[in-house]
DNA-binding response regulator
Amino acid sequence: MKKITVFVADDHKIFKQGLISLIESTPDLHLDGEASDGETALRLILEQSPDVAILDISMPMLNGIELTRRLKQRQLPCKVLMLSMHYDVRVVERALSAGADGYIVKDAAFEELALAINSVLRKKRFLNSQIQQELDVYKANSPEQQLTEREKEIVRLIANGYSNKEIGERLYISHKTVDAHRVKIMRKLNLHKSVELARYAYDEKLDI
């Protein structure tokens, strides 16, 4: 029986080594590689194409959410499980919007992680019931759900300190188009000043 190949990316060495030991002791899993930063993880995952990549959200050089976004843009068959200490449903929503196939918190039992791996390989998104319920409530009440995907991307870049010119260059649109998006975004969110938009993005953890 072919083993499931797993890649692990996490900058917390003790946690990562513990997770690797558990994976290596599980008969149907095979460790395909590991990394401590997002850039290295991206390069190795593209080279090795594991069945599942388990990614920490907070990593140096490239965080797990941006790494997920780049992997999904390449249309790899690799499934992505986001592993994080964050219970915040806003962070969960960011991860899923980036393309994560599942989300699991770091204090979960290894049995839950194994269940998550098998679930995403069957093309089923994995969230535990508590996070799913909180996510449903958040989506029903969040004003951000009014935004288009392009508008969400612009808010995320604003949260990370990009200027209108830099956002335009990154998204291949003119700075005037970025200005127009800003106006629409602020109207939808009932904000009146650019500083309020930046604060909103920070409070909603859109800089992750």
About this structure: The CA atoms of residues 157 and 167 lie 7 Å apart. The two ends are 39 Å apart (CA to CA). The longest strand covers residues 29-35. The chain has two domains: 4-139, 143-203.
